[in-house]
Amino acid sequence: MTRTSLSLAILLSAAALQAPDAAACTNLIAGPKATTDGSVFMTYSADSHNLYGMLNHTPAAKHAPGAMRKVVEWDTSKPLGEIPQPAETYNVVGNINEFQVAIGESTWGGHEELVDTTGNSIIDYGSLIQIALERSKTAREAIKVMTDLVDKYGYASSGESFSIADKNEVWVMEMIGKGAEKGAVWIAVRIPDNAISGHANEPRIRKVDFKDKENVMHSKDVISFARRRGYFNGKDADFSFADAYSTHDSGTRRGCDGRVWSYFRRFNKDADKYFAWCNYDSNEPMPLYIIPDRKLSLEDMQASMRDQFQGTPFDMTKDVGSGPNHVPYRWRPMEYEVDGKTYCMERAIATQQTGWSFISQTRADMPDEIGGVIWFGTDDTNSTVYMPFYCSMTEVPAELAPGDINTFSFDSNFWMTNWVANQAYNRYDLMIPDIRKVQGGLEKKYISSRASREKELKSMLDRGDKAALVASVNSEGKAIAKEATDAYRDLGQYLFVKFMDGNMKKTDENGNFIKSEYGLPVYPTFPGYDKKYYENIVKESGDHFLVK
């Protein structure tokens, strides 16, 4: 997930060069006093045109002295080296571990000359996340693990932002390499408990109070290195990590910060003023975090991950590019030229090329085995079903096991979600109501059943039967993944039949196909196109199709 600072076109076309997409990932954050139930929420979407959606798992383990861990680059699967294992590593489900530590990321690239030039660095950003989850019991410990790793073994990636949460707090850490010098420069800021934050392929940390040791951490040379390289020459108090180590052009503001702004404006009535920054009309940056006007729920986080700029000047359903069915998606490339001028496509949080995404929910008022939940979904966030898996889970459901982006399977959650989503991309406004019924029904069921389910799980812990809890968590995880996958397999078939050949078959209030009194299917309706579509045909062709 790299990002150059040249233009949105270069920024996003780099996706073809690596497995995860360039300028792709989105992280949204809510502190424990900004949520309805005291949860810490953090979201992440792994967006790529070539990334298969699956749930990874690394079991807890004990390691003998001298045991080594292989380091493999997440983008390319290239072996980078080995590092010693600690005596113990922890259970990791996706991007959350057994102690409710959760980590996400987004890449922004920054100055190209700061990518390692020695070839000796072996810790890439994906390995930083995984190794920290294997070795950390708190967010602060994760920051130390990550920064110690790059100091000792070198940093093998470009500029990166990390969201690092535990059951009590959440941090944003930004990091970039030092070119020919070993290691990285970095800064980390704790997001206030009553605030929301986010990052989407743009560095977001600017002026901070370096005296606030409780809420600000940084490498010793974060400012001095910038001075030596000519990136900054002001007073220490005016230092901005985001501006020293990257640039912010119109493409990255609109395509990257625009996503965070669209999240902010949902929960703060004054956040609309930051549209000027995203639209390149003002140089007053959007802040790292804001205080919401109301507290956020899990449902709010799910809805935010499905954001497509609805009701904003960037609304993707309002221009001719959305077609007759008001499709809030645009195919790549992201820029095009007309009459010598360059134009862009919008880049929303919800996008077609997502491999998988999650909402981590971490809670201080519950035992770790139950308090940490990763609400996991495959493919497009707009049409996925977020399934709850506890951080104590030790077995990945078959529907979420590793697969192949080039091999279709009716048993794969990723492929069934893609099947549903890709049908809707062509006839969005007609199909999305049917998708919302199935998606919403499943998610409401999973959310509403948590209280009773967690009471049951806690009773197992109270009687000291952790083995029963793990078995129960694994069993429920398998049942949920199968149910969601089966439901979308049925939904995909239903959509294909209902909208076959551009028609729309008639259904009753329960969605059942209507038959005549003699048992035959009744004649379908012809939805046709919207008025704007017909008007554009006439504008383009004049009287060519005029009925004489």
Label this structure with key terms.
548 residues; five-stranded antiparallel sheet; 21 strands; globular; disordered N terminus
Task: Describe the fold and architecture.
It comes from Lepagella muris. This is Dipeptidase. By secondary structure, this protein is an alpha+beta fold. The protein is 30% helix and 19% strand. The protein has a seven-stranded antiparallel beta sheet with strand order 16-14-1-2-19-20-21. The protein has a five-stranded antiparallel beta sheet with strand order 10-11-12-13-15, with helices on one face. Strands 3-8-9 form a three-stranded antiparallel beta sheet. A hairpin with a 2-residue loop joins strand 8 (92-93) and strand 9. The longest helix is centred in the C-terminal third of the chain and has 33 residues, at 466-498. The protein is globular, with a radius of gyration of 24 Å. The termini are far apart. Residues 1-22 have low confidence and may be disordered.
Can you list the strand order of the major beta sheet? 16-14-1-2-19-20-21
Counted beta strands: 21
Structural class of the helices, strands and pairings?
A: alpha+beta
| Strand coverage percent | 15-25%
SS element count, helices:
14
Number of domain modules = 2
Q: Give the quaternary arrangement of the chains.
A: single chain
Q: Using only CA atoms, what is the Rg?
A: 24 Å
Coarse shape: globular
**Which regions contain 5 or more consecutive residues with pLDDT less than 50?**
1-22
